[in-house]
Amino acid sequence: MKSATVLGSGSWGTALAATLAEGGRPVTLWGRDPDLAARINALHENPRYLPGAVLPPSLAATTNLADAARADLVLFVVPSSVTRAVAADLAARGLPANTRLLACSKGIERDSGLRMSQILAEFFPAHPVAALSGPNHAEEVARKLATAAVIAAADPAIARELQQVFTFPWFRTYTSDDIAGVELGGAIKNVFAIAAGISEGLGLGDNAKAALVTRGLAEMIRLGKALGGQAETFQGLSGVGDLIVTCYSSHSRNNRVGNRLGKGESLADIIASTNMVAEGVPNTASIHAAARKAGVNTPLIDQAYAVIHEGKSPAQALGELLSRNPRPECDG
């Protein structure tokens, strides 16, 4: 693939664009802010979302979606809540027949319950669609620290083709045919990242966080299977791998949001004080809705939803979790 477009000029989109631009491949980084695009082109750096990371000269930022519509590969790295709108806009401009689409945002749509690749398939039915996920913090990918990810596609040949594009000395990718499981793992873990942050904000220790991560994985597998994923996928990079890194890393926006909630700050104040999107906030609502529709037992997701979207106090949520009726571990 000779050229690539990355839709979304946040930290993760910028890190992926910089990675693809290694070796001189022309990459277009699209975003809505003209000032930011101008600064990226002038400084070869994204000072707002990824300061300090030097961007290759073959990377060019733009706000014109028409500039992004001519690439062999298009990455969707916009927030999951606007994926549909951006896909509709791009589809109206048309894409070359051989363009591949790669969903890199981690979330499911609130009203429809659709995964990002399913939304892309609606607008681009003739184009191959795949998904990339894993324990991938943008700050570390931009610094070329060792990273692994998984690329999933219904067609194994497309997954292998994209695997070659995303193979670098510091960036190793694996393939999967379970696109549902790969996307669901990346979306569901956002909820538990906020919950892990809440536990830190409450002053709980390592025992509590280890229990939360373990029980969170059990919920992820139960819900993920009900929504079409394969159990073994959630034991891989896009499941337990992403869950671990986002629950324990200081890079995790979701974790930081949860930490502040646990310390008593309001969600409105937290959101107003940051310029980055914490996907776990809207995704907690969409994942909670999906769990209720599927009839899956998800006590952690239920309590996280109540804290984030219904104003329940973190201390009350913790007390209710710990006072649930005793049961065998395998029963949830």
- Identify the overall geometry: globular
Order of helices and strands: EHEHEEHEHEHEHEHHHHHHHH
Specify the CATH architecture of the largest domain. 3-Layer(aba) Sandwich
Look at the structure and name the CATH superfamily of the largest domain: NAD(P)-binding Rossmann-like Domain
Q: How many strands appear in the DSSP assignment?
A: 8
* CATH level 1 name of the largest domain: Alpha Beta
Total number of distinct structural domains: 2
CATH topology of the largest domain: Rossmann fold
Poorly predicted tracts of residues: none
Please, how many helices?
A: 14
What is the strand arrangement across the widest sheet? 3-2-1-4-5-6-7-8
Biggest sheet: strands, sense, closure? 8 strands, mixed
Mean pLDDT across every amino acid position: 95
Radius of gyration: 19 Å
- How far apart are the first and last residues' alpha carbons, in Å? 45 Å
How helical, in percent, are the residues? 40-55%
Q: In what range is the share of β-strand residues?
A: 5-15%
Based on helices, strands and strand pairing, what is the structural class?
A: alpha/beta
Describe this structure in words.
- The chain has 14 helices and eight strands.
- The chain folds into two domains: 4-177, NAD(P)-binding Rossmann-like Domain (Rossmann fold); 180-331, N-(1-d-carboxylethyl)-l-norvaline Dehydrogenase, domain 2 (Orthogonal Bundle).
- With 332 residues, it is α/β, with parallel strands linked by helices.
- Helix 7 (179-201) packs parallel to helix 9, helix 8 (206-226) runs antiparallel to helix 9 (237-248) and helix 13 (299-310) packs antiparallel against helix 14 (314-322).
- It has an eight-stranded mixed β-sheet with strand order 3-2-1-4-5-6-7-8, sandwiched between helices.
